[in-house]
Amino acid sequence: MNDSANQKRSWWQRLSAGLKRTSASIGGAISDIVSKRKLDAGTIDELEEVLIRADLGVVTAAKVAAAVGEGRYDKTVTADEVKQILAAEVEKILAPVAQPLVIDSGAKPFVILVVGVNGSGKTTTIGKLAAKLRHEGRKVMLAAGDTFRAAAIDQLKIWGERTGSPVVASSPGADSAALAFEALEKARAQALDVLILDTAGRLQNKVALMGELEKIVRVMRKLDATVGQNALSQVEEFSKTAGVTGLVMTKLDGTARGGILVALAAKFGLPVHFIGIGEGVEDLAPFTARDFARAIAGIE
Predict the structure, then answer these.
(1) Average pLDDT, the chain
(2) Cα 33 to the chain's mean position, in Å?
């Protein structure tokens, strides 16, 4: 097996392990249901409930349950058959949103504004993304726009050192919009390829913090019309406020809620650029619909 195949296998193993709690809860419930009796309306309803509980969303759950029932009423089906159908249906939903992050080399810098709720792994994801971009030969700058937490500023500086990327930072409590403006001016003056801006973790229902995020986007847009069109996130309110154009799914390991990505894809149709499992630089990989669908269904 060559290095490329080994890397792919290694990533698949990490992805499967990261989604183990999700796939185990779905798989166990599917086995319980289909082992009891032949398929009927009751079985289909139970399957739908299992998938809703796994956070796949009502629309997806109904689609998968309908696909399982098609032409199979009063027949015995195995758990493996149901998992294959689940994987196929999930892949159909995810395939249109599995899109790479395309860096516009004409924009100097190409700006990525990273937003999300508290504890969603923004700063670590920035570090991993910076490492990937540096590996591609791009000149990257990081900006510590999470001025609320000294730890976030320090963490970003460490990632800057690791990846050989300059970091624009200020003292805790500084105005994040002013820092964003300063970083963009510096990145432009140095003709850097990419500027990645961290922001404070905020709940989407906190009006003041969301207002601050809007100010950051507004200030940067005045300086550069392309800013705000390139962002990584996960929720509706951020889309309204910051013009989110793509998602990174993080922290899948240790949760049984991996199905939420399927619900997000079905509802918003936003591109999913990367998926993150674990803390290492190699634990951020381009999102592929087939791998995710098979891992969530528990298919080896």
Answers:
(1) 80
(2) 31
In angstroms, rounded to a whole number, what is the distance separating the alpha carbons of residues 148 and 203?
14
* DSSP-H helix ranges across the chain: 3-18, 20-34, 41-53, 58-69, 79-94, 122-135, 150-163, 176-189, 207-223, 236-242, 260-268, 289-297
Residues of the chain with CATH 3.40.50.300: 110-287
The CATH number of the domain covering residues in 3-97:
1.20.120.140
- pLDDT-derived band at 253 (thresholds 50, 70, 90) equals low
Inter-residue contact 197 to 187 (CB < 8 Å): no
- In the chain, CATH 1.20.120.140 sits at 3-97
* Close Cβ partners of 47 (under 8 Å, ≥ 6 residues apart): 30, 33, 64, 65, 68, 82
Which residues are paired to 112 by β-bridges? Answer: 196
pTM above 0.85, yes or no: no
Distance CA 238, CA 31 (A): 38
- pLDDT band (50, 70, 90) for residue 212: low
Give the bridge partners for 140, in sequence order. Answer: 194
Cβ-contact 82, 48 below 8 angstroms: no
Tell me, what DSSP letter sits at residue 9? Answer: H
Instruction: Please give the CATH architecture assigned to the domain spanning 110-287.
Output: 3-Layer(aba) Sandwich (3.40)
Site of tokens 């432009």: 188
159 close to 130: Cβ distance less than 8 angstroms: yes
CA proximity to 23, closest of 238, 298, 214? 298
- DSSP state for residue 246 in the 8-state scheme: E
3-state class (DSSP) for residue 281: helix
CA distance 34 to 37: 6
29 Cβ neighbours under 8 A, 6+ residues apart: 50, 53
DSSP secondary structure of 71-119? TTTTS---HHHHHHHHHHHHHHHHGGGB------TTSSSEEEEE---TT
